[in-house]
């Protein structure tokens, strides 16, 4: 099946692939599928492609409004300013995954979350968050749903 609207169709297919892998893991916990890897791959696709092609279509919705709509919003790590809106959050997430500024967190060899950060050109970390996998999954799914509406 061809892409009629590249970004919208890519977003829809990315979310569908994530759902299929998550469901397969639920159906068979021993299945050799990697839902966290797919979650990061999904985030990469959802934040990099729109950033490069349609960044201005990402709304500047204040994060407080998104919280009221049920979004999980990451809290920045101490000593970093709060992210003001969705577009800036996506900008930071895009930079974190595109430049591999991520570190997985574990609890007894089980992945529990991810640390993400942004660096300035001089190498200074100017934004950082700690996300649980639940929060990351929520952001990916909520942002993917939003992209399908605005693209």
Relative helix content: 40-55%
The ordered H/E elements are: HHHHEEEH
Q: Count every beta strand, where a strand is a DSSP E run of 2 or more residues.
A: 3
Oligomer description: single chain
For the largest sheet, list the strands in their spatial order. Answer: 1-2-3
Radius of gyration using CA atoms only: 16 Å
- Report the principal-axis shape: globular
Low-pLDDT residue spans: none
pLDDT averaged over residues? 91
End-to-end Cα distance, whole Å, is 19 Å
Number of helices, where a helix is a run of at least 4 consecutive DSSP H or I residues: 5
Compute the number of structural domains: 1
Largest sheet: 3 strands, antiparallel
List keywords for this structure.
151 residues, single chain, globular, three-stranded antiparallel beta sheet, alpha+beta
Structural features, described:
- The protein has helices at 6-27, 35-53, 63-68, 86-98, 133-150; strands at 102-107, 110-119, 125-132.
- The chain is globular.
- Helix 1 runs antiparallel to helix 5 and helix 2 (35-53) packs across helix 4 (86-98).
- The protein has one domain (6-150).
- Strands 1-2-3 form a 3-stranded antiparallel β-sheet.
- It has 5 helices and 3 strands.
- Helices cover 52% and strands 16% of the residues.
- It is α+β, with helices and mostly antiparallel strands and 151 residues long.
């Amino acid at each position: 099946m061809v892409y009629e609207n590249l970004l919208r169709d890519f977003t829809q297919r990315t979310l569908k692939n994530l759902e299929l892998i998550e469901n397969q893991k639920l159906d068979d916990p021993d299945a050799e599928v990697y839902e966290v890897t797919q979650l990061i791959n999904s985030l990469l696709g959802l934040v990099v492609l729109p950033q490069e092609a349609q960044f201005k279509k990402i709304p500047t919705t204040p994060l407080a409004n998104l919280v009221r709509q049920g979004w999980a919003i990451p809290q920045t790590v101490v000593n970093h300013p709060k992210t003001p809106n969705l577009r800036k959050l996506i900008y930071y997430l895009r930079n974190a995954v595109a430049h591999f500024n991520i570190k997985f967190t574990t609890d007894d060899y089980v992945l529990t979350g991810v640390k993400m950060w942004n660096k300035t050109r001089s190498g200074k970390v100017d934004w950082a968050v700690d996300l649980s996998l639940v929060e990351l999954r929520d952001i990916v799914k909520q942002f993917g749903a939003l992209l399908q509406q605005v693209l």
